[in-house]
Design goal:
Blueprint: H1 8-11, H2 14-18, H3 20-28, H4 33-36, H5 51-59, E1 66-67, H6 84-93, H7 108-119, H8 124-127, E2 131-136, H9 138-153, E3 159-163, H10 168-175, E4 180-184, E5 186-187, E6 192-193, H11 195-204, E7 210-214, H12 227-240, E8 243-248, H13 258-261, H14 263-270, E9 276-280, E10 293-298, H15 302-320, H16 326-336, H17 338-368, H18 376-380, E11 385-387, H19 392-402, E12 404-405, E13 411-413, H20 422-433
Bound molecules: (2S)-2-hydroxybutanedioic acid (LMR).
Length: 437
């Protein structure tokens, strides 16, 4: 309906009259919830590719169900474990502290023990005061602090992330607003390291890029460079002036030896790199829910280290103010006391060894089940996960037909495999892969 301009009395009503068709539509077709509620326009977020598997597992009521999704250690009875070293540390900590706030950067003793564990007790960079370090909220929190630091103080740099990697790495750098690219890491046909691709991508990346490296027990592939390959990678990165950031979520968990698992970092340090390290005590001390970790950055000198540390605290303060106390006290008690530390070394080796033996057993059971496929990669890989090579459809069939849950990239959390369930797992894997892998 058009309104005549010669009718001044009606002119004020013009907007209402012109809106009539829309109003009529609104009355005839009731508005969707999206238009009528405050958050009606908020879409459901997609499920997390790892923690979403636990939700599916919990919803399955079949008693034979198996959760091989999230990387969380279980004993041979499928039960979560609290290490004896942690129990003893808890006993010593109980009642011994006030529940005061920690400083923004966390517990000083915890940090100094953590960086020694990563870099070695006698690392020159520690003696020279070149290391900026703060306590963090486990591995995710460390990576996120670094990503925010990168955004502010390494402007225009990209982060290069291995293909494949832990799915949360993408979320972390995306949310920090840092541009990311992938580098070649894994070769599906050899089920091994794509060393040539990796080196080529190091050369091609813009000088001064950040390279995210898994210090050991690469998640999800379980494929690590050898010490000689790390040396080559280190030299190639030095030439291009790249900044290596080591995500070390599994120190001790790969080989059972904390020094051996930190070899990559120490090779890079020896070559004179400035680098970052994200440490987590979730897996190696079983402190998953305590959210305890450490982020450290090796700088050129003491002045820079102090400035970098102050900026890391400035990032942490508005994000979570200061980190939690309890887990940091437990770690400190263990690392400061030689007897407890030795007990912990023994226990972390025990966990690593159990996983290594489950790899052999799974491979053996697959062969006994009559699988004609090559399963050597299960025993060649290292760390918490077996990157099986199964397709997303095979993984879906394992869940639907056998109540066995794992991430859709075919990653099996070997920490959830035990002498009681390995046979059923092998039979089920054989059934869904028959002749197709
Ligand atoms: C995993 O990869 O399963 C673990 O690191 C747990 C997690 O937070 O994703």
């Amino acid at each position: 309906m058009a309104l005549s301009t010669s009718a001044p009395a009606l002119a004020g009503l013009r907007p209402v009259l012109n809106a009539l068709p829309a109003l009529t539509r609104a009355l005839v077709q009731p508005a969707s919830a999206a238009a009528t509620t405050l958050f009606g326009n908020v879409e459901q977020a997609p499920k997390d590719p790892i923690l979403g598997i636990t939700e599916k597992f919990l919803a399955d009521t079949n008693p034979i169900k198996m959760n091989l999704g999230v990387g969380a250690y279980r004993d041979d009875n499928g039960q979560p474990v609290v290490l004896d070293a942690v129990r003893e540390a808890e006993r010593r900590v109980a009642g011994s502290h006030f529940m005061e706030y920690l400083p923004i950067g966390g517990l000083r003793d915890f940090i100094s023990e953590s960086v020694k564990l990563a870099y070695s007790d006698d690392a020159a960079v520690l003696r020279e005061g070149q290391v900026a370090a703060v306590q963090s909220l486990s591995g995710t929190g460390s990576c996120r602090l670094f990503a925010d630091f990168q955004k502010r103080f390494m402007p225009g740099t990209k982060v290069f992330i291995p293909e494949p990697t832990w799915s949360n790495h993408f979320n972390i750098w995306r949310d920090a607003g840092v541009e990311f690219a992938k580098y070649r890491y894994y070769k599906p046909d050899t089920r091994g390291l794509d060393m040539d691709g990796f080196l080529e991508d190091i050369k091609r990346a813009p000088a001064g890029s950040v390279f995210l490296l898994h210090a050991c027990a690469h998640n999800p592939t379980g494929v690590d460079p050898t010490p000689e390959q790390w040396r080559q990678l280190s030299r190639a990165m030095l030439e291009r002036g790249h900044f290596p950031l080591f995500d070390m979520a599994y120190q001790g968990f790969a080989s059972g030896d904390c020094d051996r698992d930190a070899a990559s970092i120490r090779i890079f340090l020896g070559d004179g790199h400035r680098l970052g390290v994200s440490q987590s005590y979730a897996k190696n001390m079983g402190l998953y829910g305590q959210r305890v970790g450490c982020l450290s950055v090796v700088c050129d000198n003491k002045r820079d280290a102090s400035a970098v540390e102050s900026q890391l605290k400035a990032i942490a303060r508005p994000m979570y103010s200061n980190p939690p106390l309890h887990g940091a006290l437990l770690v400190t008690k263990i690392l400061q006391d030689n007897d407890l530390k030795q007990l912990w070394f023994k226990e972390v080796k025990g966990m690593a060894d159990r996983i290594i033996s489950m790899r052999s057993l799974l491979r053996k059971r697959l062969e006994e089940a009559g699988s004609p496929l090559p399963w050597g990669h299960i025993t060649d890989q290292i760390g918490m996960f077996a990157y099986s090579g199964m397709s997303p459809e095979m993984v879906d069939a394992l869940a639907a037909q056998h109540h066995i849950y794992m991430t859709r990239n075919g990653r099996i959390s070997m920490a959830g495999v035990n002498t009681k369930n390995v046979g059923r797992l092998a039979e089920a894997m054989h059934a869904v892969t028959s002749g197709k892998l």
